[in-house]
Amino acid sequence: MDFGDSLQTRTRTSGQVIFVLAGLVATLFLLSQLTGQTEWSDRARNIASQPRLWPAVALIVMLAGFGAQFWRLRRRRPNLLDRLEMRRWAEPVEYLLWFMAFVLAVPVLGFLPMSIVFACTLTWRLGYRTRGMLGLAAAFALGVVILFKGFLGVNIPGAAIYQALPDGLRGFFLTYL
Amino acid sequence: MDLFLSAIDVLARWDVALALFVGAIGGVAIGAIPGVGPAVAIAILLPATFSMDPIVGLTLLLGIYGSSMFGGAIPAILINTPGTAVNALTTYDGFPMTQRGEGRRALSLAYSSSFLGGIFSVLCLILLSPVLARIAPMFGSREIFLAALLGIILVVVAHRGQMAVAAALAGFGILIGTVGLEPAAYTRRFTFGQSWLASGFDLIVVVLGLFALSQAFLLLTMDDEKIRLPRSRGSILQGFRELARHPRVAGVSASFGVLMGMIPGVGEFTAQFMSYTSARKLSKTPEAFGHGSSEGLIASETANNAVPAAAMIPLLALGIPGEALTAMMLSVFYVHNVVPGPGLFQNDMDFVVALYLALLALNVIVLVFLLVSTGWLVHLTRIPNRFLGMCIMLLSFVGIYSIRNSAVDCIIAAVFGLLGYVLKRLNLPIVPIILGMVLGGIMEVKFRAAMARVRTPWEFIERPIAMLLFVVIVLIVLSTAWRVWREWAPVDRRSPQKKAARAFVGRIRGRTTRHFENRLKRQRRTRFYDHMGS
């Protein structure tokens, strides 16, 4: 093997055929929708002003790219290894659900409380169950809220639950936590 | 001199100094943690910088960008895991040195080389400024369109061995950039009647999904590694003396870094790959490369640290980002209504010079910080992977949700996070999607503006810079086509069993006795069949 070749990035073989096939099918579907989802304007002065031009260019490039990759694949029919790799792709779905639950809970229950709950429960779920790790997770969540909402003032709205707080605390919680 | 003083005036503010300091130290720490990287950190911090002054926000992001590669060398050298993706080649020579007990020497070489690369590229940037200020106004719509097209072509060509899929992903990036309400005729494109798609995909949401969330998913589904930090001897300053003994390797590598950084779509990978292979060719001991060669370490670290400052050239002068990180920075400019491009050099030169000086100061701060803090920075590599994944997920939420307080944005980012996870599992590149999205938008606008002024195709390329860019594009396309044609080989689709059977038949074909004549034996030896036939 050439030394230069040994420094090249290599695509993982297992799962590649499924990814490329999915890309190809999605491209063909989008290409079939091109006339319905984009317009051909009669008022356009030239081809560059046509709203359809760039989606068409993008889809043609995608079709050529995925097509060439599929054509050059060593194995065009998925086997057991591809199916196992596909199962690995589904693994993060659990964490995606954790993330979405957190997203939906923050506007209701508050950024600070939910961050601490999210960080500690996810840390527990991941198998770090010592007091030290749980404390570290809570401290991290507290630090993120203080840094981003308290100091940098990022735009995360106050929670509905903060409305139940006494007058003095409500304003502080809505603004900083 | 007035320009220099007004640039100092821009920088001499407590918030800019703080941003520079936090960016530099934060970048080193982020680089030293394998699995985070500058792209994740910049994507997360991007929305937070929107409320800052442009110079403060950009200094913070530049600090992270410029310093993360310094920090990325620490785990690459000590535990054979690159802290950032561009430190991958550092492991080739850094880790073998650590195994020999020369970890401190390797770290010192990496710091000094990185410092040299960083300073060299900032000096090039400063020296090139007058030229850029003169050339940049010559870039009209057609030149910017051709430069963006060149960037797209180069990002595809740079992924050697993955060109077809990189092209497809760049096309995908262009496509998602077109979704939503089209700005010229106000028609909808690929919205499928969904109101949430009318405003299109936000670049930052896509970036956070593809870089930050995908990395969180990857870390959360990984096993933790047992990190053993080896003992090492030597002085942390000896690398500076050693670097002085290899001026040619350092000079060539820094030049490659600057050159590759300036060309849109190429970036750190190609820079360090080219500098590493050329350093190997120039070396008197090429066999030592990959086994702890100091020249190899100098080549890779000098080249990758020379890129960040050079990558600012197309961004500042033309408004064209050369890679994913500068594409993210482009959005900071737009948010503050500062339009990078030819006008920036004419109207806000003090701002540009202030950025150069910030980059210069950054390298000094990082070097001093590393020299005093390497001892505790190495412990950052001990953070467990999955815990780190949880931290990135929490920070990603801040980045995504603070843009528009939209749960839909979070869903979009999560879907792109899954896509990024699959791409990372398959070892496929993400950068073409981001560059396709950004450069596709630029190409559409500039092509429309350019075509309104030309009547014949020849007029499109008749101006000198347009002609030069066109010729470069044609040469790159032709040379790539030539290389692909020359290296073309039919795909071997046989199963391993069939291949073995076929090889065996080939070996025994025509054999009449158990023993071969000497001539035949010799022939077989040259064909690497010598272990058979006796």
How would you describe what is shown here?
The complex is a heterodimer of chains A (177) and B (534). Chain A is mostly helical and 177 residues long. Chain A has two domains: 3-90, no CATH class; 93-176, no CATH class. In chain A, 67% of the residues lie in helices and 0% in strands. Chain A has nine helices and no strands. Chain A starts with a helix and ends with a helix. Chain B has 534 residues and is an all-alpha fold. Chain B folds into two domains: 2-137 and 144-219 and 233-453, no CATH class; 499-526, no CATH class. Chain B has a two-stranded antiparallel ribbon with strand order 1-2. In chain B, strand 1 and strand 2 form a beta hairpin. In chain B, helix 3 runs parallel beside helix 17 and helix 4 runs antiparallel to helix 13 (294-318). Chain B starts with a helix and ends in an 8-residue tail after the last helix. Mean pLDDT of chain B is 86; it is low at 516-534. Classes of the chains: A mainly alpha (177), B mainly alpha (534). At the A-B interface, helix 2, helix 4, helix 5, helix 6 and helix 7 of A face helix 8, strand 2, helix 9, helix 12 and helix 17 of B.
Question: What can be said about this structure in brief?
Answer:
The complex is a heterodimer of chains A (177) and B (534). Chain A has 177 residues and is mostly helical.
